[in-house]
Structure prediction request, 275 residues.
Amino acid sequence: MQPVRRDLDFDLPQQLKPEDIGQWHPAGRHVSHFFNALSLFFPEGERFFIHSVRHYRGRITDPALQQAITGFIGQEAMHGREHVDFNNLMDRAGLPATQLDRFVGRLLERVKKLIPPSWQLGVTLALEHFTAILANVLLSRPETLAGAHPRMADLWRWHALEETEHKAVAFDVYDQTIGRGFRAWALRCFLLLAVTVIFMSLVFVFHLRLIAADPQARGLRGWARLVSFLYLRPGALRRIVLPWLDYFRPSFHPWMHNNRHYLTQIDELTASYQS
Ligand SMILES: [Fe+2]
Ligand SMILES: [Fe+2]
Prediction:
């Protein structure tokens, strides 16, 4: 699997009005803000992923993996750029996007200073697993985005497809540099546990901040629709539990979840946005 950088422009600032940012998903403002909260982590988070993989690039002798790293870096950079536009729309709608994005940046700068490169790569691996299993829900359950603003739906589907395409790159870099022994396995498992607790807590807090800042996101009905969306239908968080657990198998590899058939959608989806 060779990920390819696609320079796509979704032109979000022109295609959406700031007030759309709280209502682009048909399941309501609370669900829109759940996706919006995730978006706030991408620009800084993806820069961190690139940084952690680049650190080990010089030790990779396999030319195919070198090429995959190039594709991975290119894809994450494009995701970050489009999510900056996404997050700017939140700012224009009066939501505290810049403040929350800066928090993520400061946190990751601290992480870079506090933990060694092998741990940083392990954090990337864990978050790439997280994004890959969430992406799989999005691709396997089209109702996740049914009826959403078409630009937003395309942006999320593109991101999900490319996360799928490059889901094994950081893992293979870890495999070839940190290794496959017990210590390497224990480190990646420990980091998945730590990252899950920290990331889910932060998503929850960011989500609450966005809802609190949106005067139209009020009432119990919105919360009920959110809980239903996350745990019942399509049940994104319920559906990632088993694939999340697979990461703890010593023999785990991201392609053991073989969902590459979704990638046939990518050319058609991206054709109209390629610049
Ligand atoms: Fe990404
Ligand atoms: Fe990624």
